[in-house]
């Protein structure tokens, strides 16, 4: 039997509203992208003109929105099969795929060109790489082919601190690279926690997420394993003297909590009719964790 969402996706789309184009950009995800990019820019030495700083953050937001739109353009068939994504503009039949494609490509091109002319080549180049990586490496190549999609594809969401730093300085240094590593290593435990309690969705869509192809036990162990280098990357900026004590003590406290939640998930066994509360708690805290970690970067720079 064909689902209602699939029928909507293949029917003649209704005229799209501005809300649908906004939904294509994945605004919730964009919030975290913009914040980590802002932290990278503020952490950079020297000062950037407020207008240029705003422009850089706008470009990061537009680039992230473009990547989200192109992701939804390519994955419309998968989104139609998953409960949590069936309401998106394409599977819900509120927009045609061509409009989404043109919107995403146009947004990507505009963000990169504006970054180049308003800021510098380095920031524009890294922004370009981040968009292309998310679309071609993660979305098109990895997502449907390997359970390591999140591990490798996590780099796509880790670029904003590098972009923000490069926008302010025109180059890249050790601190933004470590912040990149933090997001890169944070992504697997964050996303696998989500994948554990939406496993059925991914299975129905045929997406080879780790819980689907390797089972819950392996996924839990991997969450625990990846938490260790993530914590090391989080503490490294303080250990290397690149940030001050505000960041350092914040990092220690947050990582102790993260480690406790991750260990609980790693060691537990699923039960019949399990509501996956520890996994949901880890997923929700992981979002707060990253906001607070990068908030500490900003606070440390301002209080220095």
From TrEMBL:
GO terms for molecular function: protoheme IX farnesyltransferase activity. It catalyses: heme b + (2E,6E)-farnesyl diphosphate + H2O = Fe(II)-heme o + diphosphate. The keyword Coiled coil does not apply. Carbon 2 of the heme B porphyrin ring is defined according to the Fischer nomenclature. This is Protoheme IX farnesyltransferase. Keywords: Cell membrane, Heme biosynthesis, Membrane, Transferase, Transmembrane, Transmembrane helix. Its EC number is 2.5.1.141. PANTHER family: 4-HYDROXYBENZOATE SOLANESYLTRANSFERASE (PTHR43448:SF7), PROTOHEME IX FARNESYLTRANSFERASE, MITOCHONDRIAL (PTHR43448). Signal peptide: none annotated. The keyword Transmembrane applies. Converts heme B (protoheme IX) to heme O by substitution of the vinyl group on carbon 2 of heme B porphyrin ring with a hydroxyethyl farnesyl side group. Pathway: Porphyrin-containing compound metabolism; heme O biosynthesis; heme O from protoheme: step 1/1. It is an enzyme of class 2 (transferase). Belongs to the UbiA prenyltransferase family. Protoheme IX farnesyltransferase subfamily. Its main location: membrane. It holds the Pfam family UbiA. It is a multi-pass membrane protein. It is found in: Cell membrane.
């Amino acid at each position: 039997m064909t689902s209602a969402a699939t029928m909507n996706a293949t029917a003649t789309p209704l005229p799209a509203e501005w809300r649908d184009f906004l939904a294509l950009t994945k605004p919730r995800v964009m919030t975290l992208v913009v914040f980590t990019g802002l932290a990278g820019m503020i952490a950079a030495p020297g000062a950037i003109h407020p207008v240029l700083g705003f422009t850089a953050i706008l470009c990061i937001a537009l680039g992230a929105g473009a990547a989200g739109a192109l992701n939804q353009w390519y994955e419309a068939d998968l989104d139609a099969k998953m409960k949590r994504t069936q309401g998106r503009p394409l599977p819900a039949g509120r927009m045609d795929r061509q409009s989404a494609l043109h919107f995403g490509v146009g947004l990507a091109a505009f963000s990169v060109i504006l970054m180049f002319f308003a800021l510098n080549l380095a920031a524009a180049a890294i922004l370009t790489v981040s968009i292309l990586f998310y679309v071609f490496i993660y979305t098109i190549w990895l997502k449907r082919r390997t359970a390591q999609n999140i591990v490798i594809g996590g780099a796509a969401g880790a670029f904003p601190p590098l972009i923000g730093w490069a926008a302010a300085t025109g180059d890249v240094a050790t601190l933004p690279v470590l912040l990149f590593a933090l997001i890169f290593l944070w992504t697997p435990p964050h996303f696998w926690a989500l994948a554990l309690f939406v496993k059925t969705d991914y299975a129905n869509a045929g997406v080879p997420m780790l819980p689907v192809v390797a089972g819950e036990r392996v996924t839990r162990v991997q969450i625990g394993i990846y938490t260790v280098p993530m914590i090391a990357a989080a503490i490294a900026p303080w250990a290397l003297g690149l940030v001050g004590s505000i960041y350092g003590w914040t990092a220690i406290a947050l990582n102790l909590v993260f480690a406790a939640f991750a260990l609980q998930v790693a060691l537990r066994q699923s039960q019949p009719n399990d509501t996956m509360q520890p996994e949901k708690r880890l997923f929700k805290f992981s979002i707060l964790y990253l906001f607070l970690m990068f908030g500490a970067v900003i606070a440390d720079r301002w209080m220095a």
